[in-house]
Design a protein that fits this description.
15 strands
Length: 351
Amino acid sequence: MKTIAVIGCGRIAQNAHFPAFEKIEGLRVKYACDLIEEKAQAMKEKYSFVENVITDYNIALADPEVEAVYVLTPNFAHYTVTMDALNAGKHVFCEKPIATTYALAKEMADKAQEKELILNIGVCNRYHKSVEMLEQMNREGKFGNLYHIYCSFRNFRSIPGLGGPFTDSRHSGGGVLIDWGIHFLDLILYILGGAKIKNVTCDTYNGTAKDMKEYKYNSMWAEDTADIENGVNDVEDFVTGYVRTDKATISFNGAWAQNINKDEMFIDFLGDKCGARLTYCGKFEVYDAKTLETINPEYDIPNMYECEDRAFLSSYETGIKDKNNIENILESMKLLDSLYQSAKVSEEIKL
């Protein structure tokens, strides 16, 4: 029986991790913790494996029965809660992004190493079947020279929780790049096989909702957190950039709120033997340069959250670091940090 605590019972907990926990035998959630007690209480009422509801996570950290904690809080709290948990001797699963800056992320990695504890990061796409298959294709040389990757994470008028924590840089650390972009860029670095960043250039824009009261939308993710009357919107809703690595170049465009009514969430992998287009969170097609054939692989897609949760629980039991260990995610955080630096100074950043 594994005993854990969950700190933060918001959307990612409710929609991803608690449903995954329900599928995993021998798992005991001794504490569900949230500053808003009703959120944690709702998890206890819904899932029989949740034993206690608390609002102070230090109660869970002081409990010797708790082996590991899930840090599913807003971005700004990842560093503090994770460091407290590591100092208390707990293994940690922390949702993405690692932290709001690379410097803080590096401190977290160093602390986990010092304490000889497992610290995994919730870049769930590394456990998506399509991403695993594309990584294997590249590792086996199927692309030939995989020289460029383009990704698009663009949507129409879909800023989440406008005026609330999503659009307040003090809470989120950024906008569409840190929210959506980290998933795309991390899976790309993973498929490339540990690519190292050489230089980056990036521009960010906050143009579609400067006047929040005039912002028009069809739907809004996390609308219950919005504060259009009195809140803050100081993060980017559009980003564009170019990255050189030691393995391939990467270009991207991302938008929470482009004024084009299209859902454009895909990644193109361009090799000299074949190319592939991955529909985000879906399947991919392969385009063979020799036969000009379009190949649609047939495969099932297991739940990636369940896969990453099983991997974390196994990792801290065996002590073997898996692909979501923080040591394997730091380059993605360095990339994110460098892109924001480039946008801030309007110059290329060399690493």
